[in-house]
Amino acid sequence: MAAAPSGSRTRMVTLISKGGRNFKMPEAVALVSSRSCREALDYIEYRGNNTMMIKLLDIDPKPVSMLVNFCNHMAAAATSAASDDAAQRMREWEERFLGDDVDQALLYDLLSAAISIQADGLIDLVCKRVAHMIKGKTPQEIRTILGIQDDLTPDQRDEIRTDNSWIDI
Amino acid sequence: MHRSSKRKAATAMPSSACNPGGRKKAAVSSDGGSLPDEMVMEVLLRLPVKSILRFRAVCRSWAALFSTDVFRSLHIADTASPKLLFVSPTTATSSTKVYSCSPSERKDDDALLFALDSACGSSMQLLTPAPCHGLSLLYDDTAPAYYICNAATRAVTRLPTFLHRATYTCAGFGFDARARKYKVVRLSKGTRHEVESVRCEVYTHGGGDGDCWRPPTGGGVPLGLRRFAHSAIANAALNNLPPVFANGSLHLVVQPNSFFRRPRAAVISFSLSEETFSFVGPPPFWTPEMYSSTASSLRETGERPFMPGTLGEHLVQMDNQLCMVRDLRYNPSGGCILEIWKLPDSTSSAWSLNHRINLFGRVARDLCRTQVVRVMGSTGNAGSRKKMIIATSEHIIFDKFQKKVCTYDLGSQSLETILSVTETRTSLQTMTPSSRFGLFEESLAPVSTTPPS
């Protein structure tokens, strides 16, 4: 990995969203948050002061900006001391981050953006949120949502029901 | 349980109808709609156990997926908030009921998990106070028989009969990370006249070894550790202290009163992967001076409690480390103190003081009055407020005992009772009643691996 230049400029990583909007984050943040960035920077021997650009041209600007916001926040939180209060504040921040104004579509776009740069922290958070949203649903609702065909025979369904008779299936 | 409503269905997942913002994709298609396929797996791995069991009925491939070892081992248990498992102390001889409740949420919905027929409630003990990768071990004194259960999936199985019987026995449960199997280890202390004075038998859950108890592969207790093992097993049996599972080994603490000098070994450890015995040295507060004093001066210094059946120290696993709890409630200076000493590195014997619980006022008086105090574990490592979970037992009158589970909040230093049970002991062999409480984490770990015969 090339060493940071001794000049006063911090090296940045730029994400480009649909519509050509640019969102920047410091390279240090990108290295901590994104596996793709870590791997890419491992390969590059020298790139001077050039900013690394990542094209996410089929993702809307809002999810990309949220992604950058998330990475910056997580990197800052990682450097501060761990304590019960800090953990509590982080959870509250995460609640606000994925607040009521984040609808399903935005959630999935955010997930796509996170997957594109392999931002494991955000992938985990979004998946946990989706799991929380679907955990109470009936099997039929899940099939409807994900478009899955019901291919269980009545015998198989009965067997599953009796195996776990304490759950309504 | 779950009610679907029209409003919920409409806001559930995006289709082109309710998202006019302009997603080009068509409404829900067979490839998972807008949720990428690889992420469906990531979402499934984060579902609670009850939901996974329900979703087996979604389709055949999901039912198959949830039964694979890969999925079960990747399924992420929520380790920050373990739940409480509780065996009800009914005196009826026909069945025992096992319940669960959640210590961190303070809801009063004790869920009845299952009932074990032909097992007596008052002789049933829970041998796993700390969560052990999703499974718990129960022991019925009268049968006698061991049971393994998964409190999240509510599956339970009875183990085959063990070989050695003796006056003093104890059993511990743990997970061998190398073989990826759960093991039950039973130690019995025979009489001095028998050739093999300490017997050890191991049961590997999940087959592979035949469905039976066998001697440990690493050999029995080494000669040099025999007397420490005797003391530790007697201690475990008399004071109902099952071996504690931490860092891949089961640990038992010796009773320091059984030695005339500061013992070389304070804790006997049994590694589940190697199946060999080792030891850990004594903590700094077992000073040589304690042993050179006479009994009367011990009472004066108040260092060692002078009541039968109470114990100075017990072990507990917290934050994946072995800890020793030093019970200083009989401290003459009046405070009610419990010290937690941690052993970060099991190869050295460097115990270090980690926490000091110092209680005052009425709470302290209540805690000091109870006979037995056992720290079971802690919750909230990663996020919520850290709390310690403590089980207490108090002898009320005749054969009645009051058993409670409390949480101690490290931040606010307050003690709160979550569960309180009155128990009637049918036999008063020991003053220390057996444990009925245990913590567990949600997990899909299978319980019956061999088909029922």
UniProtKB/TrEMBL annotation, chain B:
User: CDD domains annotated for this entry?
Assistant: F-box_AtFBW1-like (cd22157)
Q: Where is the F-box domain?
A: 29-74
Write down the PROSITE patterns for this protein, in alphabetical order. FBOX
Which residue intervals make up region (Disordered)?
1-33
Xref: InterPro entries:
F-box-assoc_dom_typ3 (IPR013187), F-box-assoc_interact_dom (IPR017451), F-box-like_dom_sf (IPR036047), F-box_dom (IPR001810), SCF_F-box_component (IPR050796)
Full protein name: F-box domain-containing protein
Source species of the chain: Brachypodium distachyon
Lineage, opening ranks: Eukaryota, Viridiplantae, Streptophyta, Embryophyta, Tracheophyta
Q: Which gene encodes it?
A: LOC100838063
